[in-house]
Design a protein that fits this description.
Number of domains: 1
Helix content: over 70%
Largest sheet: none
Radius of gyration: 21 Å
Structural class: mainly alpha
Number of strands: 0
Length: 356
Amino acid sequence: MKWIRILVDPLRRHWVWIKWVAAIAILTWLFRQNRATLRQIDWHNLDWSFFAVGVVLTGVAFLITFTRWYYLVVSQGLPFTWRDAVRLGFIGILFNYVAPGAAGGDIVKALLIAKEHPERKAVAAATVFLDRLLGLIALFCVGAVASLAFLPLTDYPRLQMLLSVLWAGTLGGLVGLFLLLHTSLPQSRLVAWMFKIKFVGPILEEIQRGILMYQSRKRVLWGAVGLSVIGHFAFLTVFYCASLALESGPAAPSFIGHLFLIPAAELVGVLIPTPAGIGALEGAVQGVFVMGNEMAAHPVEKELAAAAGFSVALVFRLTNMMTALIGGAFYLSNRREIEEVLEEEEHLLEDEQITD
Protein backbone atom coordinates (compact mmCIF):
# COMPACT_ATOMS: atom_id res chain seq x y z
CA MET A 1 0.00 0.00 0.00
CA LYS A 2 2.92 2.29 -0.75
CA TRP A 3 0.77 4.61 -2.86
CA ILE A 4 -1.45 5.33 0.18
CA ARG A 5 1.63 6.34 2.17
CA ILE A 6 2.70 8.64 -0.68
CA LEU A 7 -0.69 10.39 -0.51
CA VAL A 8 -1.09 10.48 3.28
CA ASP A 9 2.40 11.63 4.34
CA PRO A 10 2.22 15.08 2.64
CA LEU A 11 -1.26 15.60 4.10
CA ARG A 12 -0.07 14.83 7.61
CA ARG A 13 3.05 16.97 7.23
CA HIS A 14 1.10 20.01 6.01
CA TRP A 15 -2.09 19.33 7.97
CA VAL A 16 -2.15 22.70 9.74
CA TRP A 17 -2.15 24.59 6.44
CA ILE A 18 -4.79 22.30 4.96
CA LYS A 19 -7.01 22.95 7.99
CA TRP A 20 -6.64 26.70 7.59
CA VAL A 21 -7.41 26.55 3.86
CA ALA A 22 -10.57 24.58 4.66
CA ALA A 23 -11.57 27.03 7.41
CA ILE A 24 -11.06 30.08 5.18
CA ALA A 25 -12.95 28.42 2.33
CA ILE A 26 -15.96 27.71 4.59
CA LEU A 27 -15.97 31.25 6.01
CA THR A 28 -15.72 32.75 2.52
CA TRP A 29 -18.67 30.68 1.36
CA LEU A 30 -20.71 31.70 4.43
CA PHE A 31 -19.92 35.39 3.89
CA ARG A 32 -20.97 35.15 0.25
CA GLN A 33 -24.15 33.29 1.20
CA ASN A 34 -25.14 35.94 3.76
CA ARG A 35 -23.72 38.97 1.96
CA ALA A 36 -27.02 40.69 1.23
CA THR A 37 -28.59 40.13 4.65
CA LEU A 38 -25.43 41.02 6.60
CA ARG A 39 -25.69 44.54 5.19
CA GLN A 40 -28.94 44.95 7.13
CA ILE A 41 -27.15 44.43 10.46
CA ASP A 42 -25.96 47.65 12.07
CA TRP A 43 -22.47 46.66 13.22
CA HIS A 44 -21.68 50.24 14.25
CA ASN A 45 -24.27 50.10 17.03
CA LEU A 46 -22.93 46.92 18.63
CA ASP A 47 -23.88 46.95 22.32
CA TRP A 48 -20.40 46.83 23.85
CA SER A 49 -21.74 46.21 27.36
CA PHE A 50 -23.12 42.81 26.34
CA PHE A 51 -19.94 42.13 24.38
CA ALA A 52 -17.86 42.89 27.48
CA VAL A 53 -20.02 40.54 29.56
CA GLY A 54 -19.43 37.89 26.90
CA VAL A 55 -15.65 38.35 27.10
CA VAL A 56 -15.70 38.06 30.90
CA LEU A 57 -17.93 34.97 30.78
CA THR A 58 -15.60 33.39 28.23
CA GLY A 59 -12.68 33.82 30.60
CA VAL A 60 -14.72 32.45 33.51
CA ALA A 61 -15.82 29.44 31.46
CA PHE A 62 -12.23 28.64 30.50
CA LEU A 63 -11.10 28.89 34.12
CA ILE A 64 -13.85 26.43 35.08
CA THR A 65 -12.63 23.95 32.46
CA PHE A 66 -9.04 24.34 33.70
CA THR A 67 -10.23 23.68 37.24
CA ARG A 68 -12.00 20.53 36.05
CA TRP A 69 -8.79 19.26 34.49
CA TYR A 70 -6.81 20.19 37.61
CA TYR A 71 -8.95 17.89 39.76
CA LEU A 72 -8.65 15.06 37.23
CA VAL A 73 -4.86 15.30 37.35
CA VAL A 74 -4.33 15.65 41.12
CA SER A 75 -6.76 12.79 41.81
CA GLN A 76 -4.25 10.55 40.03
CA GLY A 77 -1.64 11.43 42.64
CA LEU A 78 0.41 13.55 40.24
CA PRO A 79 2.08 16.74 41.56
CA PHE A 80 0.15 19.49 39.82
CA THR A 81 -1.08 22.95 40.77
CA TRP A 82 -4.07 24.98 39.67
CA ARG A 83 -1.63 27.50 38.23
CA ASP A 84 -0.13 24.70 36.10
CA ALA A 85 -3.62 23.86 34.84
CA VAL A 86 -4.28 27.49 33.91
CA ARG A 87 -0.88 27.84 32.22
CA LEU A 88 -1.22 24.69 30.11
CA GLY A 89 -4.92 25.37 29.52
CA PHE A 90 -4.34 28.78 27.96
CA ILE A 91 -1.47 27.40 25.90
CA GLY A 92 -3.86 24.72 24.64
CA ILE A 93 -6.43 27.34 23.63
CA LEU A 94 -3.77 29.28 21.74
CA PHE A 95 -2.59 26.17 19.92
CA ASN A 96 -6.12 25.32 18.86
CA TYR A 97 -5.60 28.19 16.43
CA VAL A 98 -1.88 28.13 15.67
CA ALA A 99 -0.70 24.56 16.34
CA PRO A 100 1.97 23.48 13.87
CA GLY A 101 2.40 20.01 12.43
CA ALA A 102 -0.14 17.42 13.50
CA ALA A 103 -0.64 18.96 16.93
CA GLY A 104 -3.78 20.61 18.21
CA GLY A 105 -4.45 22.30 21.52
CA ASP A 106 -5.27 19.09 23.38
CA ILE A 107 -2.26 17.31 21.86
CA VAL A 108 0.08 20.08 22.96
CA LYS A 109 -1.38 19.99 26.50
CA ALA A 110 -0.97 16.20 26.61
CA LEU A 111 2.64 16.39 25.39
CA LEU A 112 3.52 19.10 27.92
CA ILE A 113 2.00 17.39 30.95
CA ALA A 114 3.48 14.04 29.89
CA LYS A 115 6.93 15.65 29.73
CA GLU A 116 6.45 17.15 33.20
CA HIS A 117 5.52 13.68 34.56
CA PRO A 118 7.72 11.21 32.65
CA GLU A 119 7.17 8.50 35.26
CA ARG A 120 3.46 8.29 34.34
CA LYS A 121 3.27 9.73 30.85
CA ALA A 122 0.25 7.73 29.73
CA VAL A 123 -1.96 8.63 32.67
CA ALA A 124 -0.91 12.28 32.58
CA ALA A 125 -1.74 12.54 28.88
CA ALA A 126 -4.96 10.53 29.29
CA THR A 127 -6.33 13.13 31.72
CA VAL A 128 -6.45 15.64 28.83
CA PHE A 129 -8.63 13.40 26.69
CA LEU A 130 -10.77 12.31 29.63
CA ASP A 131 -11.29 16.02 30.35
CA ARG A 132 -12.50 16.56 26.77
CA LEU A 133 -14.79 13.51 26.97
CA LEU A 134 -16.43 14.70 30.20
CA GLY A 135 -16.91 18.11 28.60
CA LEU A 136 -18.76 16.55 25.67
CA ILE A 137 -21.02 14.54 27.99
CA ALA A 138 -21.89 17.71 29.88
CA LEU A 139 -22.57 19.55 26.61
CA PHE A 140 -25.09 16.87 25.65
CA CYS A 141 -26.66 17.10 29.12
CA VAL A 142 -27.21 20.86 28.91
CA GLY A 143 -28.81 20.62 25.47
CA ALA A 144 -30.96 17.64 26.43
CA VAL A 145 -32.35 19.25 29.59
CA ALA A 146 -33.05 22.53 27.74
CA SER A 147 -34.92 20.61 25.03
CA LEU A 148 -37.61 19.71 27.57
CA ALA A 149 -38.89 23.30 27.33
CA PHE A 150 -39.79 22.77 23.66
CA LEU A 151 -41.53 19.39 23.70
CA PRO A 152 -43.31 18.07 21.74
CA LEU A 153 -41.46 18.65 18.44
CA THR A 154 -43.54 16.37 16.28
CA ASP A 155 -43.98 19.02 13.57
CA TYR A 156 -40.25 19.66 13.21
CA PRO A 157 -38.35 16.57 11.92
CA ARG A 158 -34.90 18.21 11.99
CA LEU A 159 -35.39 19.35 15.57
CA GLN A 160 -36.57 15.86 16.49
CA MET A 161 -33.32 14.48 15.06
CA LEU A 162 -31.37 17.03 17.08
CA LEU A 163 -33.32 16.01 20.17
CA SER A 164 -32.45 12.34 19.56
CA VAL A 165 -28.73 13.11 19.21
CA LEU A 166 -28.67 15.14 22.42
CA TRP A 167 -30.47 12.51 24.49
CA ALA A 168 -28.49 9.61 22.98
CA GLY A 169 -25.24 11.40 23.82
CA THR A 170 -26.43 12.22 27.33
CA LEU A 171 -27.67 8.74 28.21
CA GLY A 172 -24.81 6.97 26.45
CA GLY A 173 -22.18 9.14 28.14
CA LEU A 174 -23.67 8.88 31.63
CA VAL A 175 -24.24 5.12 31.38
CA GLY A 176 -20.70 4.60 30.07
CA LEU A 177 -19.27 6.68 32.90
CA PHE A 178 -21.33 4.73 35.43
CA LEU A 179 -20.05 1.40 34.06
CA LEU A 180 -16.44 2.55 34.27
CA LEU A 181 -16.77 3.86 37.81
CA HIS A 182 -19.21 1.48 39.48
CA THR A 183 -18.63 -1.93 37.83
CA SER A 184 -15.75 -4.32 37.17
CA LEU A 185 -15.76 -3.56 33.41
CA PRO A 186 -12.25 -2.05 33.47
CA GLN A 187 -10.98 -5.42 34.83
CA SER A 188 -12.87 -7.58 32.33
CA ARG A 189 -11.24 -10.12 29.99
CA LEU A 190 -11.98 -7.93 27.00
CA VAL A 191 -10.01 -5.06 28.48
CA ALA A 192 -7.19 -7.42 29.50
CA TRP A 193 -7.04 -8.74 25.91
CA MET A 194 -6.57 -5.18 24.65
CA PHE A 195 -3.34 -4.95 26.67
CA LYS A 196 -1.77 -7.40 24.18
CA ILE A 197 -2.23 -5.03 21.25
CA LYS A 198 1.14 -3.95 19.89
CA PHE A 199 2.28 -0.40 20.77
CA VAL A 200 -1.01 0.73 22.37
CA GLY A 201 -1.34 -2.17 24.84
CA PRO A 202 1.02 -0.76 27.49
CA ILE A 203 -0.66 2.65 27.19
CA LEU A 204 -4.10 1.10 27.64
CA GLU A 205 -2.87 -0.78 30.69
CA GLU A 206 -1.65 2.45 32.26
CA ILE A 207 -4.96 4.13 31.47
CA GLN A 208 -6.77 1.22 33.10
CA ARG A 209 -4.77 1.82 36.27
CA GLY A 210 -5.90 5.42 36.16
CA ILE A 211 -9.56 4.41 35.79
CA LEU A 212 -9.26 2.01 38.71
CA MET A 213 -7.85 4.84 40.79
CA TYR A 214 -10.81 6.99 39.78
CA GLN A 215 -13.10 4.21 41.06
CA SER A 216 -11.91 5.03 44.55
CA ARG A 217 -12.50 8.71 43.83
CA LYS A 218 -15.86 8.59 42.09
CA ARG A 219 -16.84 12.00 43.37
CA VAL A 220 -14.00 13.56 41.39
CA LEU A 221 -15.33 12.42 38.02
CA TRP A 222 -18.96 13.16 38.84
CA GLY A 223 -17.85 16.53 40.20
CA ALA A 224 -15.96 17.12 36.95
CA VAL A 225 -19.18 16.52 35.04
CA GLY A 226 -20.90 19.07 37.28
CA LEU A 227 -18.16 21.64 36.62
CA SER A 228 -18.49 20.91 32.91
CA VAL A 229 -22.20 21.68 33.01
CA ILE A 230 -21.50 25.02 34.71
CA GLY A 231 -18.74 25.81 32.21
CA HIS A 232 -20.91 25.04 29.19
CA PHE A 233 -23.75 27.07 30.67
CA ALA A 234 -21.33 30.02 30.74
CA PHE A 235 -20.15 29.41 27.16
CA LEU A 236 -23.73 29.16 25.88
CA THR A 237 -24.59 32.37 27.72
CA VAL A 238 -21.78 34.04 25.73
CA PHE A 239 -23.67 33.16 22.54
CA TYR A 240 -26.79 34.77 24.00
CA CYS A 241 -24.79 37.88 24.97
CA ALA A 242 -23.53 38.03 21.38
CA SER A 243 -27.10 37.98 20.05
CA LEU A 244 -28.05 40.75 22.50
CA ALA A 245 -24.98 42.79 21.54
CA LEU A 246 -26.06 42.56 17.89
CA GLU A 247 -29.67 43.29 18.82
CA SER A 248 -30.76 40.27 16.76
CA GLY A 249 -34.28 40.40 18.19
CA PRO A 250 -36.70 37.78 16.85
CA ALA A 251 -34.05 36.49 14.42
CA ALA A 252 -32.29 34.84 17.39
CA PRO A 253 -33.65 32.11 19.70
CA SER A 254 -34.54 32.79 23.32
CA PHE A 255 -32.00 32.11 26.07
CA ILE A 256 -33.40 28.60 26.58
CA GLY A 257 -33.39 28.20 22.81
CA HIS A 258 -29.66 28.89 22.79
CA LEU A 259 -29.14 26.23 25.48
CA PHE A 260 -31.07 23.72 23.35
CA LEU A 261 -29.70 24.53 19.88
CA ILE A 262 -26.09 25.67 20.29
CA PRO A 263 -24.71 22.40 21.81
CA ALA A 264 -25.30 20.67 18.47
CA ALA A 265 -23.41 23.46 16.69
CA GLU A 266 -20.52 23.17 19.16
CA LEU A 267 -20.41 19.43 18.54
CA VAL A 268 -20.02 20.09 14.80
CA GLY A 269 -17.20 22.51 15.59
CA VAL A 270 -15.43 19.77 17.56
CA LEU A 271 -15.87 17.02 14.95
CA ILE A 272 -14.80 18.96 11.85
CA PRO A 273 -10.98 19.35 12.05
CA THR A 274 -10.49 23.01 11.21
CA PRO A 275 -8.43 25.19 13.61
CA ALA A 276 -10.63 25.65 16.70
CA GLY A 277 -13.60 24.66 14.53
CA ILE A 278 -13.37 27.90 12.51
CA GLY A 279 -15.93 27.90 9.74
CA ALA A 280 -17.56 24.70 10.96
CA LEU A 281 -18.92 26.32 14.13
CA GLU A 282 -20.09 29.44 12.29
CA GLY A 283 -21.91 27.40 9.68
CA ALA A 284 -23.48 25.15 12.30
CA VAL A 285 -24.71 28.09 14.40
CA GLN A 286 -26.24 29.56 11.27
CA GLY A 287 -28.00 26.24 10.67
CA VAL A 288 -29.43 25.88 14.18
CA PHE A 289 -30.68 29.48 14.13
CA VAL A 290 -32.64 28.62 11.00
CA MET A 291 -34.00 25.49 12.69
CA GLY A 292 -34.97 27.44 15.79
CA ASN A 293 -36.69 30.06 13.68
CA GLU A 294 -39.02 27.37 12.33
CA MET A 295 -40.63 26.86 15.75
CA ALA A 296 -40.79 30.56 16.68
CA ALA A 297 -44.22 32.05 17.35
CA HIS A 298 -43.45 34.80 14.83
CA PRO A 299 -40.70 33.50 12.53
CA VAL A 300 -38.61 35.93 10.49
CA GLU A 301 -37.33 35.36 6.97
CA LYS A 302 -35.01 32.36 6.71
CA GLU A 303 -32.20 34.51 5.30
CA LEU A 304 -32.41 36.91 8.26
CA ALA A 305 -32.25 34.08 10.79
CA ALA A 306 -29.25 32.58 8.95
CA ALA A 307 -27.39 35.91 8.91
CA ALA A 308 -28.15 36.44 12.61
CA GLY A 309 -26.73 33.01 13.45
CA PHE A 310 -23.60 33.61 11.41
CA SER A 311 -23.09 37.05 12.98
CA VAL A 312 -23.59 35.77 16.51
CA ALA A 313 -21.03 33.03 15.86
CA LEU A 314 -18.53 35.62 14.61
CA VAL A 315 -18.94 37.71 17.78
CA PHE A 316 -18.57 34.57 19.90
CA ARG A 317 -15.43 33.71 17.94
CA LEU A 318 -14.02 37.16 18.66
CA THR A 319 -14.50 36.71 22.42
CA ASN A 320 -12.67 33.36 22.21
CA MET A 321 -9.78 34.73 20.18
CA MET A 322 -9.33 37.63 22.59
CA THR A 323 -9.10 35.10 25.43
CA ALA A 324 -6.70 32.94 23.40
CA LEU A 325 -4.27 35.87 23.33
CA ILE A 326 -3.64 35.22 27.03
CA GLY A 327 -2.09 31.96 25.90
CA GLY A 328 0.44 34.00 23.93
CA ALA A 329 1.95 35.33 27.15
CA PHE A 330 2.23 31.82 28.59
CA TYR A 331 3.74 30.62 25.31
CA LEU A 332 6.46 33.26 25.41
CA SER A 333 7.42 32.23 28.95
CA ASN A 334 7.42 28.51 28.05
CA ARG A 335 8.61 28.75 24.45
CA ARG A 336 11.65 26.50 24.74
CA GLU A 337 9.73 23.72 26.49
CA ILE A 338 6.90 23.85 23.95
CA GLU A 339 9.28 23.78 20.98
CA GLU A 340 11.05 20.75 22.46
CA VAL A 341 7.88 18.69 22.82
CA LEU A 342 6.72 19.66 19.33
CA GLU A 343 10.07 18.56 17.90
CA GLU A 344 9.69 15.27 19.75
CA GLU A 345 6.25 14.82 18.19
CA GLU A 346 7.68 15.37 14.71
CA HIS A 347 10.44 12.83 15.41
CA LEU A 348 7.83 10.31 16.55
CA LEU A 349 5.92 10.78 13.32
CA GLU A 350 9.11 10.35 11.28
CA ASP A 351 10.04 7.20 13.23
CA GLU A 352 6.54 5.85 12.63
CA GLN A 353 6.95 6.41 8.89
CA ILE A 354 10.31 4.59 8.91
CA THR A 355 8.85 1.67 10.88
CA ASP A 356 5.91 1.39 8.49
